[in-house]
Amino acid sequence: MTLGKSVPARSLFQHVQVSSARWIAGLFALTAVAWLVALAGLLAVANRVHDDVPVLLSQKLPLLASHPDLIFGGDSRMLYQVDPRLAAQLLNKPEGSAVNIAYDAGEPLALLAVMRREAGLFRNAHVVVSVSPFVFNDGIRQAVFNPQDVIARLGVFEQMTTYLPLRVSTLIRFIREAFAARLESQRPTSRPVQSLAASGLFFLDISQPEDRLPAALGSHPHYANWNIAGAKARFETQALCDMVKLARKVTVVIPPWAPRYDRAKDAEWREKDDQYVALVTVVGRACGFDVVNIASVPGVTQANYADEMHVNISGIPIYTRYLMSRLNQ
User: Fold this and answer.
1) Is the pLDDT of residue 206 over 90?
2) Does residue 22 lie within any of the structural domains?
3) What is the pLDDT of residue 194?
4) CATH number of the domain within which 307 lies
5) Above 50 in pLDDT, residue 111?
6) Quick one: average pLDDT of 238-265?
7) 3-state helix/strand/coil string of 144-196
8) Which one-letter DSSP state was computed for residue 38?
């Protein structure tokens, strides 16, 4: 009798377990749907408030008040490597005639937005733009390497299908940056610039130890899932083309990597890098901007580098002088 009565009890317990599991699964499903709907709503709002000029670039716009003849822009390899005051001296021009408005992970679309907004300040200037592979590589999904202006040009559905579920941080960063850029755009560009480094230059004074540097560049995040035939390359190269009509002259700079890396011994890096250089070069010929491809800088050693791609403070004058010599050729 005891065994006979235990069977219905066990069956009831199993039934409760199954019902609970279904309720939990249903709750998770409803939560996921609600979360996706909320994310889609935030993305839709972010797309509407997005400003192509990010906070880091907007904060440097007061430098343009000097009506510079030479404007350095683009990514971190311009931000940390080019001293505009030295550049002005080499041109025998006064301080302020050259400024550096580059910023971390800078993209051409953002600079183009500034050039359109401040057309009178760029019309007679030589604009020198530094670019990196990640700007054109559609295979990258990480938040830090995704140009915000490209994401803004995708619809909500495409944004979600591109970056979910593993790269939700990319979308969260986009939403945060969109609202921050909109707030920053409301501030006057005539504000003081005392908080900025001299003419826009920032520098790295600490070098990473050798064991912290990538062993090779072929698998570097800039080249991850390599694809320069997608939306990023299309939007960013078109931005470079559109700059030509807004400035006296436009030069696109492809900076070097640290001298510890040997292209001859890294076939993967060499192949990807050649494709990226070829892309920029072909577009430059078609649109009318110059391309300066710097494979290496004479006199620069590994000791002048802070990491695999940025010179430290000791390398700034060497790099600046060499870049200026190439611009004057």
Assistant:
1) no
2) no
3) 47
4) 3.40.50.1110
5) yes
6) 97
7) CCCCHHHHHCCCHHHHHHHHCCCCHHHHHHHHHHHHHHHHHHCCCCCCCCCCC
8) H
In a domain, residue 103? The reply is yes
- Grade residue 13 by pLDDT with cuts at 50, 70 and 90: low
Residue with tokens 């540097």: 213
Query: Which strands sit side by side in the sheet containing 249-254, from one edge to the other?
Result: 98-100, 70-74, 126-130, 249-254, 290-293
Whole-angstrom Cα distance, residue 247 to residue 242?
10
Give me 308's structure tokens: 């695999």
Domain that holds residue 104: 51-142+189-327
DSSP string, 57-108: HHTTGGGGGG--SEEEEESHHHHTT--HHHHHHHTT--TTSEEE---TT--H
Q: What pLDDT digit, counting tens, does each position of 83-98 carry?
A: 999 999 999 999 999 9
Residue 240, Cα to own-chain centre: how many angstroms? 15
Which H helix or E strand runs over 17? helix 2-49
Residue 82 resides in a domain: yes
Q: Cis omega before residue 84 (within 30°)?
A: no
Give the model's confidence band at 8: pLDDT under 50 very low, under 70 low, under 90 confident, else very high: low
- To 10 degrees, what angle do helices 267-287 and 231-243 make? 40
Number of domains in the chain: 1
**In this structure, is residue 298 part of a structural domain?**
yes
